[in-house]
Fold this sequence. Notes:
This protein has one domain (about 10-200): Rossmann fold (3-Layer(aba) Sandwich), CATH 3.40.50. The chain is about 35% helix and about 20% strand. It contains six helices and seven strands.
Amino acid sequence: xxxxxxxxxxxxxxxxxxxxxxxxxxxxxxxxxxxxxxxxxxxxxxxxxxxxxxxxxxxxxxxxxxxxxxxxxxxxxxxxxxxxxxxxxxxxxxxxxxxxxxxxxxxxxxxxxxxxxxxxxxxxxxxxxxxxxxxxxxxxxxxxxxxxxxxxxxxxxxxxxxxxxxxxxxxxxxxxxxxxxxxxxxxxxxxxxxxxxxxxxxxxxxx
Length: 207
């Protein structure tokens, strides 16, 4: 039996809604949706029914929906489920973009399925969709330089902001994310995985 190509219809970026979380490492999923909005000239606005900022448009002739859950990270699945139920979307058509401390800065990972890996937003998403069989794109945010493993060190790291050099790198990473999401839509997640998982976006040289 021929394998069905997985094409995303709903693209979700995970993050926290308050201004104090803007531009933090944990909100790189929101930043990815913002980058897609700019690239595709799609605007998102608050949708109370979906508990998030939602927008839709056409990319390469395909209808695409964008979502930033406003439920806070650990209840992200509530917002995603509201959209998938309303539009009768299968979990496999949902692409979730989020931060990953286990990946260094400049690395991205695209997968067709998998566990939450300790990420609360993904735990909620898997619980609400009732499966972990949906594509996800992880963006590396690295670990604290002093390798603090205590919860407080982890929390301060993910809720901290990128420095100037890191911010410059993340702009390039987000451009790369846009390219890969477009490839997912054009040719399927499997094709995009080869490109996304094999490249490291280089850290800008410091003069």
